[in-house]
Write a structure and sequence with these properties.
alpha+beta, Rossmann fold, two-stranded parallel ribbon, 3 helices, elongated, DNA_methylase_N4/N6
Length: 111
């Protein structure tokens, strides 16, 4: 946490810290043991942050290209409802199996 001195306090935004449009704290999924078979897998933490910014609890998250199911997993962890579909039935089946083991709990927002 940054220490704010009295002489720099006037530089703070009155509503608190502003969210930057550059996020360097969430990294892509690099290691094969964490990746699925889909070539475009995104980190769950990234989708959790986006879902938190754009929805409220019990809202519906739509993922029209479910692929590796990242958006549905993030939505379920955050207590959101979700709808997802994909042209590839294999991805849909993998998503159904994975979502059965996911609980509604997220690392974002916890201390």
């Amino acid at each position: 946490m940054l220490k704010i001195t009295a002489e720099k306090k006037h530089l703070l935004h009155p509503y608190g810290p502003l969210v930057s449009d550059v996020w360097t704290d969430i990294h892509r999924v690099k290691h094969n043991k964490y990746r699925g078979i889909h070539p475009c897998q995104l980190p769950v933490l990234l989708l959790e942050r986006l879902i938190l910014m754009a929805t409220d609890e019990n809202n519906i998250v739509l993922d029209p290209f479910i692929g590796t199911r990242t958006a549905a997993v993030a939505a379920k962890k955050l207590g959101r409802c979700y709808i997802g579909f994909d042209i590839d039935d294999n991805y849909v089946d993998m998503t159904k199996n994975k979502l059965n083991s996911i609980e509604s709990n997220s690392r974002i927002g916890s201390s």
